[in-house]
Amino acid sequence: MTSSATTPKTDYKVVGTSPIRHDGVDKVTGRAVYGSDMNLPGLLYGKVLRSPHPHARIRSIDTSKAEAHPDVKAVVTSADLAPFEPIAQIAVLGRAISENLLAKDKVYYKGHAVAAVAASNPHIAEQALALIEVEYEPLPAVTNVEAAMAKDAPILHEHWSSDENPNGTNIASHQQHKFGDVEQGFALADVVMEREFRTSSVHQGYIEAQNATAWWAADGRVTIWCSTQGPFGARDNTARVIGIPVSNIKVVPLEIGGGFGGKNPIYLEPIAALLSKKTGHPVKMAMDRVEVLEATGPTSGGYMRIKIGATNDGRITAAQAYFAFEAGAFPGAPLAGAAAAIFAPYNIENVLIDAYDVVDNKPKTAAYRAPGAPIVVFAVESLVDEVAEKLKIDPIELRLLNVATEGTRRADGVMNLKIGAKETMEAVMAHPHYSAPLTGKYRGRGVGMGFCRNNTGMSCVVANVLPNGNVSLVEGSVDIGGTRTAVAQQFAEVLGLPVEDVMPSVADTDTIGYTSNTGGSGVAFKTGWAAYEAANDVKRQLIERAARIWETSSDNVEYVDGVLRHKSDPELSLTFKEIAPMLPQTGGPVVGRANLNPTGSGGSYSANIIDVEVDPETGKVDILRCTAFQDAGTAIHPGYVEGQIQGGMSQGIGWALNEEYFMNDEGRMMNTSLLDYRMPITLDLPMIEPVIIEVPNPGHPFGVRGVGEANIVPTLAALANAVHNALGIRMRELPMTPASVIKALQKAGE
């Protein structure tokens, strides 16, 4: 059941409803096309040879035996990738893109791609990998951030150096944000608390594995069918690493079986293209689950040290954060998203943030739902709760006392416009769950706030009015969470049409204008806005056509709720469906379009209340009740918003209680199946009650805020706070597995 804490007064007719999704029939009947469905004439199958070592030099690669196999059609290695100029490559892509695809001089993690083959069937291709002879020189490995930063740590990239580390370093970058005077702020505090926190690498956990099918045609043009969140990014990056013009590649995005940020990078696309070039045949590639876990990007593991000072009446006077994130084998940990979120719910006048991007011998990290935010917010929200306990102040009252509002500035420099932090906290405090009795031994209730800054980007929409009065709506944003319908709703709202009359589709990179990745909770914002502008373009053209029919000026025609009216002669009117078949005789087809790069995406705040019961003998944490709050700005499709809230919280539960990359002493991941990598299943999850809060974003025509990410952020801390309230111990390291809970209890009893 969905409840709404605030309901803006609008006269929307389509926005705010929950129609059946347009792609629903295709998905449930099997008509929707996924990567595994690709079947082209003359299709070959590709497989990748991966490193058995987490860190090693490549002394030699001998592919001659594989190439001599009668059923092997081609072999590729890093020598087949385009050469790159180091300075330009770093500026545009980062060296990681090409070297992560196929290792060159070193392998940096177990599962790092070294070579690939194409054969007549996937079984022969897999068997042929054993014919490739690679001579390795194993090197010591590091698989957590603290070990990678140690003075005696093995150095991954020897060419890196600095004044402090002339012999090399694993620190890729250091970012700092300063606001006010943190030392002065701590001097004003009556209570100062500092704690350390740690989290493990976790995977996005999408069910559909990465895949790509490529066909390099005789004319030099390449078509790639793949599961991706960003077809234009896949096109551009593939073009760069294989050394052909962007205009020679067309990427066709297929339906996507989950992504959560993990399907932004390219892995197989360039390899399949090169194998196709060598063979003249289309080549299909797909990962198995072990490859997904060992060779695609999880999010960072992290180390955090948080310090907060407050007065006795609960005013936070200063906050300081030091955090270091694992980037995996190549730079790119989500420092910026973490810095934006870390203290975002609060108005703190003195803040200092130091953030470090650190490489280690794990797969290069990728985005995962609110990248960086859940990690640091776990630490901050745990400590905020501890401060509230120390001061004997209700934890939500303490948060409200320090809440960020319109006009306050975040520590990363962003000035808040209209935000919903206060409304979210008030909704938590007013909810019956917050005041409901919780009785029984070893039971506890925890709360936590969350935030995601949300992103935007370039987007294009084209709308073609059809003769029957329907509209073909073509967009460039891949649909992961029902965005086809959410975008169609915004288009329909402008024109006063039933959303069922709008037929949305996702186009390939040759068919639609450049559109940035589906990520950052940006599609309903940016592509919804593009649909809004395209609808207004259609409206303007229809007004001109009606004026021509009625032999009057456009100023004398109005369009209201799907009906064109003559202002001076009320008897003259045409509905959308009536004028649609008249368009060919009044000037030709009407095609609305919009291409834009809007600003003002607006951050979204979230919160959780979680009740748990902990078994002190086994350490198992059972969740009794969950309530999840989120500011959606304006909920375009409340049903989808509800699903996003529940889905994000479910992933947060897995992150907090079970999920981790379990690495052995040699640097190898030991839990490479979904039997051992313990994502929660339905039996592990409680009912999650979503509460939609609506504080419209002034930076969008319909007040939209992104809703896909903020929901995962508060769960980690809310669960840790609940476990503390149940057992009296503070869990500052994730995941809180039964073994770690027992260990903490034993330590507390010493």
Write the layout of secondary structure elements.
Layout: E1 3-4, H1 24-29, E2 44-50, E3 56-62, H2 64-68, E4 72-77, H3 86-92, H4 96-101, E5 106-107, E6 113-119, H5 122-128, E7 133-138, H6 145-149, E8 171-179, H7 182-187, E9 191-199, E10 211-216, E11 222-226, H8 231-242, E12 249-253, H9 269-279, E13 283-286, H10 289-295, E14 302-310, E15 316-328, H11 335-341, E16 351-359, H12 373-391, H13 395-401, H14 421-430, H15 432-435, E17 443-452, E18 459-465, E19 471-475, H16 483-495, E20 502-506, H17 523-549, E21 557-560, E22 563-566, E23 573-575, H18 576-579, E24 591-596, E25 604-614, E26 621-631, H19 638-657, E27 688-693, H20 715-727, H21 738-748
Parallel strand pairs: 1-27, 2-13, 11-12, 15-16, 19-20, 26-27
Antiparallel strand pairs: 2-6, 3-5, 3-7, 4-6, 8-16, 9-14, 10-11, 10-13, 14-15, 17-25, 18-19, 18-24, 21-22, 22-23, 25-26
Helix pairs in contact: 8-9, 11-12, 12-20, 13-14, 16-17, 19-20
